[in-house]
Amino acid sequence: MTTAIAILLAAASAVALAFGAMFQHSGVVADERHRSGFSFVHFLALFRNRSWILGLGFLCAGTVANVIALALAPVMVVQPIGAISLVISVLLAVKYRGLKLSRLIVAAVIVCGLSVGAFVALSATVARTSLHLGADAHPLAWIGFALTAAFLVLGLAWRRPPQLLLILGAGLLFACVATSTHLVSHQLLHAGLGAITWLNVVSLAAAGIVGSWFMQAAYAAGPPEMVIAGLTVVDPIFAVFLGSVVLGEAAGAPIWLISILVLIGLVACSGVVVLSRYHPDVIERERERRSARALLIRTPDAGE
């Protein structure tokens, strides 16, 4: 019964994520200053944008639902359900942004959705939650710190990283957030406040802050459907990896099932790659870049 409630809450969270992405993307692209590069200062300035704040409200509501879901069921079951938000996000783009869907885009969305759905169905048959206390919980915190530091340095050193890299960073960091949230909430529910490992809480917060920055930068770098696609594939797959390997949620799973899960994950990732190459907004941005580059090359000759 608790697993069913967790699945419903995760689905509600996915709906909120789709609406939050639409409003936050609108807020980010409204500020033309991001075209020269999306810095942490630009991220902080978004807190004065009404559309972005509305999107933040949706994301906060979705986060609360997802946190409760993670407290009730294993990460392997809860986190992949976010794939529902990709379908909703595409439908919102068609209605409000006039997105024209090609057969390839529709196929990519279907592949992502069905793959992650199959992932949830299979992982639910083997996922088991166990309580991790004290030093047993610290490996997850150190993984979160390491990834946070790596992407923080990357974000500060690379002025305009490609959207796919930003999505990858946000997805990996939010996977750490989800897994740590599950671990900490499980500690609180089953062992009390005194059992919480605060190192994991700090790691969770750090990954959440840098991951949020990367997500907003990804909105500035391309269409929101790409961000949702990446987050609903990279995030759950890495979260499942952390849950199964670090937290031992798949300790009883046979090798053949693990192999199938890995294969399904790769298929889901292929759908995101297709979206990153053939989404209409991505193609249009690439045309603009090529035109600008060609103009810069021709300008010196014209001056001569």
- Residue stretches low in confidence (pLDDT < 50, at least 5 long) are none
Strand content: under 5%
Shape: globular
Domains, number: 1
For the residues shown, what is the average pLDDT? 81
Span between termini:
76 Å
Secondary-structure class: mainly alpha
Protein name: Magnesium transporter NIPA
Membrane topology: Multi-pass membrane protein
InterPro entries: Mg_trans_NIPA
Signal peptide: 1-18
SSE layout and pairing:
Layout: H1 2-29, H2 40-45, H3 50-72, H4 75-78, H5 84-96, H6 103-123, H7 138-157, H8 163-191, H9 198-221, H10 224-231, H11 234-246, H12 255-278, H13 280-303
Characterization of the model:
It is found in: Membrane. It comes from Brevibacterium daeguense. Residues 1-18 form the signal peptide. Keywords: Membrane, Signal, Transmembrane, Transmembrane helix. This is Magnesium transporter NIPA. The structure is a single chain. The chain is mainly alpha-helical. It has one domain (2-280). It has helices spanning 2-29, 40-45, 50-72, 75-78, 84-96, 103-123, 138-157, 163-191, 198-221, 224-231, 234-246, 255-278, 280-303. α7 runs antiparallel to α8 (163-191). The longest helix has 29 residues, at 163-191. It is globular, with a radius of gyration of 20 Å. The chain starts with a helix and ends with a helix.
